[in-house]
Amino acid sequence: MARIVEYSPVLATARHTDGIWNAHVATRRLALERGHDHHRPAGGPAPETIRGADALILAPVPARPALRLPSDDHRAGRPAAHRILDRIRGQRPDLHIVLVSHFLVGRGLTRRDDKPYTWGLRALEGRLRDGPNPWTILRPAWLSGRDDPFHQVCFTQDVRADGLVTTDGIARAVLAAIEHPRAAAGRTATVFNLSIPGAAPADLPGQLRALEPDLEATTPWLQAFA
């Protein structure tokens, strides 16, 4: 059983806007079904919840800066998420952080389909990689409200990948990363669904192990998962 803390602002409705994935309900349901302990404290992870946690899910509301800022400028990211990272670095540098980002972050700043809300997430991804914590960065594709009983969750590191993913697919990807930290730590991947009738359930741990570690994953903290 894992002790999971989640920081994920969501909308009052199920409508998807500005990169808010609204996967909290699906993630909590799946976590409890699998016997995990799940907390989503108001206002962000409190010191006492962080102290006893095994993993943190960070799914911030992406900021919309008035001006395009350099990706390494701290003002480009969501202030609350940056403050949480500062707090965790001081209290729990060993805590595994799963960041729910956005697949357009991997497309770069020069593409026509780049969106303002991805700029802050790009800065947050970089700050997470530069810190002491073990991390996994998941980049969901476009959110789909259509449930399909044959949906399979897929990971890819192809920055040209596109597609759709449900909140249930995001939840399964997040829980797989938390349950298999050795396979997931130091990896960045896009998450999407494929409809494959008659296929066996997706081997998410195997998919995670097949991912290439990011360049930053060669830092010493990764040895803790070896």
UniProtKB/TrEMBL annotation:
It comes from the Bacteria. InterPro entries: NAD(P)-bd_dom_sf (IPR036291). This is NAD(P)-binding domain-containing protein. It comes from Actinoplanes subglobosus. The lineage of its organism: Bacteria, Bacillati, Actinomycetota, Actinomycetes, Micromonosporales.
